[in-house]
Amino acid sequence: MNLVFNSYGFVFLFLPLTVGGYTLAEHIWSDKETLAGVRRLLLTAASVLYMASFGLRSLLIFLCSISVTIVFSLLLRRFHSKILLTAALVLQVGALVYFKYAGVLTGSRIALPLAVSFYTFSQISWLVDLYRREPELENWTVSEYLTYITFFPKLLQGPITRFAEMKPHLDRLGDIRFDVESFTRGFLLFLLGLFEKVILADTLNVPVDYAYSHLNAIRFAEAWIITVAYPLSLYLDFSAYCNMGRGVARMLGMDLPENFDKPYRSVNGSELWGRWHSSLNRFFVRYIYIPLGGSRRGNARTLANMMLVFVISGLWHGSTWYFLVWGCMNGILATLTWAWIHIARPAIRGKLSHSRNSEAVTAATSTEPDHEPDHKTGASLVSRILHGIRTAFCVLFMDLWLSVTFMIFHGPDSASVLAMVRKLLTPQPLRVAEYFATQFELSELWYLIKITPLSHMPYSRYYLMWIMLIGSWACACLLPKARTVSEKIKINAFTGFVFSILFVWCVLALGKVTEFAYFAF
Amino acid sequence: MNNNNIGKFYRVFLPITALALCAVIALTVIVDPFFHYHAPLKGFPYVVDNQLLQNPGMARNMLYDSVMTGSSMTLNFDTDDFRELMGLDLIKLCSNGAYPKDISNVLSVVFQPDSRARKNNDVKAVFAALDISTFTAEPEETKYPLPEYMYDRTPLNDISYLLNKDVILEYILKPVVEKEPTDLSYVYGTTWQTEEYFSEAWVLRDYRAPEAVSEPLAADALIPRTKVNLEENILPYVEEHPETEFYFFFPPYSILYWNNVRVENRLDAVLAQSEYMMERLLGYPNVRVFYFQNEEEMITDLNNYADMEHYRPAFNRYMTECFADGTDEVFPDTVSGETEKMRKIVDSFDFGSLFE
C-alpha cells in the first residue's frame, strides 16, 4: 500500500497517526530540547516509513544518497575543500544523470527511483550552502539534516526547499504547541489540494489519456481542446500536491515555501517561471545562473546564461529531444522578454522621454498659458481599460503558450508528440465527437443532466465539457490561491458544513487512486 | 480567531462527515453492486460491466454450475446457448486481454470451497479460451493491476470499495434511475460492435503489418515459458478438480494474425507451442481441447472480423455447438494433424491479394 497523499491509507491512517504522535509528544516531554529531539526522530521515522511504502528499491537508493551526503558534509565541516565539494556534487549529479539517461543511452529500461530529482537538488543546495558557510548551516546536526531532507510533506514532489528555509521551523520544534486554528487551516489547505487533485486534475486527465491512446481518431478541434486541457491537469495535479504538502506542514505548525503562484495569470515569459514550479527556478538561479555570472557580465552573457538554464531545465524534465526543444522554446521566450524589459523598452522610453522633454521645453518658452488637464479621471479610466485589455491579451497569449509548449510532457514517445502536433496544424471543420466530450464527464455531472433542462438539450454533453474546462481554468487563473483561501476564510459552522461536504466528496473520489504527474521526474 | 467559532466548525464538520461516510458504507454493503459480501438483492437493477471488480464477487456469490473465462475472445458467448445445447447454468467471468495469471485469478475464486457458490454445488464445467501469445508472458503477469481488495478476504482494505464515488454513483444510484439492468446471459458482450465493424475494409484500415524478421524463431523457443505458465496457472486447477470437465479452446484468429506470425518468422515456433499445449492438456482425463484456428473458410474471410482477432458473435454460437457435439475437438492422435492443417492454410494463402 503506497501512501500517496490521495489515498485512504494516507488520509485515514498515516496522517492522523503522524500528527497525533507529533502532538502527543508535547504532553509527554515538557523539556524543549528533548521534545525537539523526539519530534525530529518522529518526523524522520514517519518520512522513512512514508518513502518505504512506495517500494524498497526507491527507499534504499534514497538512504544511500543521503548517507553519502552526510559523509561528505562531515568531511566538509572538517576540511573546507573545493575538491570535496566537487566530488560530492559529481556523485549526486552523476547518480541523477545515470538514473535519468543511462536507459536512453544503453537502450535498456532503468526505472527512475521515486523523487530522485527532488532530493538530489535539495542535497546539492545543502552541500553548496554548507561550503559557502551560510549562517543557517553553522552548527548543523545530522538529526536536523535528516529531518530536513526526509520531511515527507515535500519529499516526493518538492517544493525544492533549501535548508535555510526550513531551519527556523526546525529550531522551533521544541516550542511548537498544538494550535487548533493552525491545524484547521492546514487541514483546509490539504482538503483544497485534495479537491484539485481528485476532482479536477484526475477528471481532466481522462480525456488526455483517451486522446493519446486514440490518436488516429482525434480531430483538429479535439487536439486543440486536449492541448489546453493537459497543461491544466498537469498544473492542478502538481499544485494540488504542493498545497497538500503545505497543508500537512501547517498542521504540524511548520511551513514550506510556495511553489506555484497562479502561473495562468502570467503576462510574460519571465513572470511565468517565477510562478510555475518556482522552487525549481529559484534552485537554477541560485546554483547555476548566479555562479555563471547572472546578469553582472553584460547583456549578451546574461541572455546566454538564461538560455543555458532553460536548456538544462529541459534536459532535467526529460531525456528525449522534444524536452530539449521545450527548454529552448521557453528559453527563447524568456530571453526575448528579458531583452524587451531591460534593453529595448528602456531605450524606446528614453527616446520618447527625450522628445517629450524637448516638447516640454518648447511649451515652457511659449506664450500660451499652461493648461492643467481637467479630465484626469477619464484619462485614468481609459488607461486602466487599455491596461486591462493588454493584460488580458498577454495572459491569454501566455496561457496558450503554456498549453502548446507543455503538450509534449504527456507524449509517451516522439511519434505521439509529432502526431499530435500534426493534428494541431492540420485545420479541419470544428467538430467535436460526442464520445470525446463525454470523456470530460464527472459521474456527478450525469445527475446534473438528469435533473436539469440540460437533458432536453441536444448539446448537453458539450456544455458539460465546457463547464469542466472553463471551471478548471477559472480555478487555475481567476480564483484566489488555495493558501490564501485557507488562511483568510472565516472558520465557523457554515464553513464546517461546506468543508464536510467537500471532504466526503474527495474521500469518495479516492477510489481511483492515481499517481501525481511529477512522480516521474 | 475565536475558539468558539472553531468549536462550531468541528461541531458541524465532524457529525456531518461521520454520518455521510457511514451512510455511504451502509448503502454499499446493503446493495453490494460488486457482490463482494452477498448474493444480488432481488429486484435491484444491477449493472455488470467491470470485469476486474465484479468477476470475483460474481464467482463467489452467484449460483452457477459452469464457467466461461478467458480474454475478449469469450465476450460474445451467450449463456442461454449453453443452457439450450448443454444444459449448463453458465456464468461468464471474462477478462479483456487475459494473461494466464488472470485466468488463474478467476479460477482461484471460482474454486474457493467456502464461497456461497461452492457451498451450493460443484463446478461441472470450465470453458477457457487459450490465447497462445499470452502464454509467453511472465507467469505472474496480469493484464491490469489486480484490485486486491476484491480478491482477498481481508476486510481492512475493503475501504476502497466501501467509500467509492463510482460505486455509489455509477453502480447504485444510476441503475436505480435508469432501470436498465445488465442481462447476465450476454454480460460483457460487445454490443457496440454493430454490423459495419465486420468488414474487410474496416479491418484492413487499422491493420499495420509488423517489421519483417529474417531469422526464423527456433521451433522450441516458446515452449519453456509456455510450460511454466501451464504448470503454474492452468494445470493446478485441472489436477485439483477431477470432478470438473475443462474445455480449453484455441479461438479462431483471422488470417491477418497469421500474416504477422509469418512476417515475424515464428510460424514453426507458434505451431510447436500450440502442439505442446494441446498435448500437455490432453494428458488429463477431465480435459477436452477444441482447435478452431484452422477453420479455413471462417478465418480467411476478413468480413467475419472487426479487427485482426475479434470475430463475429455468430461464431460464438458455432463454438458452443462444437462443445456440445464434439466438432473440432482434438484428441491425442489428431494434434499434429490440426497444426499441419493450420500450416497448410498459411503456406497456401495469397497474402498479397489482401493488400492490393
Multimeric state: heterodimer
What is the structural class of chain B?
A: alpha/beta
Helix content of chain A: over 70%
Radius of gyration of chain B using CA atoms only = 24 Å
Low-confidence stretches of chain A: 364-374
- Order of adjacent strands in the largest pleated sheet of chain B: 2-1-3-4-5-6
Number of strands of chain B: 6
Roughly how many Å is the radius of gyration of chain A? 26 Å
Principal-axis shape of chain A: globular
Question: If helices are DSSP runs of H or I spanning 4 or more residues, what is the number of helices of chain B?
Answer: 15
The fourth-level CATH homologous superfamily of the largest domain in chain B is SGNH hydrolase
Unreliable residue runs of chain B = none
Backbone structural class of chain A: mainly alpha
Overall mean confidence score, pLDDT of chain B: 92
Roughly what percent helix of chain B? 40-55%
Q: Find the biggest chain interface.
A: A-B, 33 and 32 residues
Structural summary, described in words:
The complex is a heterodimer of chains A (521) and B (356). With 521 residues, chain A is mainly alpha-helical. Helices cover 72% and strands 0% of the residues of chain A. Among the domains of chain A are: 8-178, no CATH class; 201-256 and 420-520, no CATH class. Chain A has 21 helices and no strands. In chain A, helix 3 runs antiparallel to helix 4 and helix 6 (142-150) crosses helix 8. The longest helix of chain A has 45 residues, at 321-365. The two termini of chain A are 21 Å apart. Chain B has two domains: 1-30; 32-355, Rossmann fold, CATH 3.40.50.1110. Chain B has helices spanning 3-31, 51-61, 79-86, 100-110, 116-120, 148-151, 159-162, 165-178, 200-205, 223-240, 255-263, 267-281, 296-299, 314-325, 335-348, and strands spanning 66-70, 90-94, 125-129, 245-250, 287-291, 329-330. A six-stranded mixed β-sheet of chain B has the order 2-1-3-4-5-6, with helices on both faces. The longest helix of chain B has 29 residues, at 3-31. Chain B starts with a helix and ends in an 8-residue tail after the last helix. In chain B, 38% of the residues are buried. The chains are: A mainly alpha (521), B alpha/beta (356). The interface between A and B is medium-sized, with 33 and 32 residues.
